[in-house]
Write a structure and sequence with these properties.
Blueprint lengths: L1 H13 L3 H10 L13 H8 L1 H20 L5 H4 L4 H20 L12 H11 L1 H18 L2 H19 L5 H17 L1 H9 L16
Helix pairs in contact: 1-4, 1-6, 2-4, 3-4, 4-6, 4-7, 6-7, 7-8, 8-9, 9-10
Amino acid sequence: MIEVLLLIGAYLIGSVPTAVWVSKGVFGLDIREYGSGNAGATNTFRVLGPKAGTFVMAVDMLKGVLAVRLSYLLPYYTDPEHLTQLVNLQIGLGLVAVVGHIFPIWANFRGGKGIATLFGLVLAIQPLVALCCVGVFLMILFLTRYVSLSSIIASIAFPVLILFIFNEPETFYRIFAIAVALMVVLTHQKNITRLLKGVESKVPLFKNKKDKN
């Protein structure tokens, strides 16, 4: 019963529509009516610039971290003998937060793709793996200025790190890592199509104007 309440709490945390509130409260517009129509960090970068995009990304990541941290409210799961159950609960809480981000109750169930919140989940469970993924993301972003491509490659790097570099022993976590990569690729089909056509929008890293190239 307590686990159910925690899952509800994780969903409500994930439902905080950061991009929508920032776009409406600061810029006087609804981010979902511009760009790709998604209420996420990528579209915020594209439409409102790097400062707003960075803030939205950071808060959306924090949602994933906070959702995972709810697991520590149950002392049973903090026992070393229940490590597998703890990891499973944390992944469950984080995934529910991602669902909340995609279908936020606070924003008429129209949210983003959940990539930043998903990353927050990984950051809370395995910080070192998350930092490696951040390194991959930032490197690709610096080289290409495509947030979508950076997200895709970082997500593919995630199971590679889990399976071959860090050799994670938890079977469920290994499956989760593969599922994450597949999910990110599937949810970025339109972005992949635009990348192949050379019409995907870049984000301005050092200037407050859009790059039209």
